[in-house]
Amino acid sequence: MSDISAIKSYVVNLSQALKQTSSQTSQQLEQIAARVAKKSEAATDVGLASIQRSNATNQALGEYRNKIDTFA
């Protein structure tokens, strides 16, 4: 009977260890996902700012071209 008790105890301990490890892994994955989301958002913001600058530059160039065409 002591062998069965030892096996039951081992299984219980193993189950608890697996649950704890699973919980820790899940928390780590959530933290990584949050960091990736922040970095992705930052990259998107940088890209959007670049596009907005480019659009503003193109608009200014278009206005200058119109003025040059008017004078020419």
Please explain how this structure is put together.
- The protein has one helix at 2-71.
- The longest helix is centred in the middle third of the chain and has 70 residues, at 2-71.
- The model has no long low-confidence stretch (mean pLDDT 93).
- With 72 residues, the chain is mainly alpha-helical.
- The chain is rod-shaped, with a radius of gyration of 31 Å.
- The protein contains one helix and no strands.
Tertiary shape: rod-shaped
Give the proportion of residues in helices: over 70%
What's the SSE pattern?
Answer: H
Roughly what is the average pLDDT, rounded to an integer? Answer: 93
Keyword list:
single chain; mainly alpha; 97% helix; rod-shaped
Spell out the blueprint of helices and strands.
Elements: H1 2-71
Provide a short characterization of the protein structure.
This protein has 72 residues and is mostly helical.
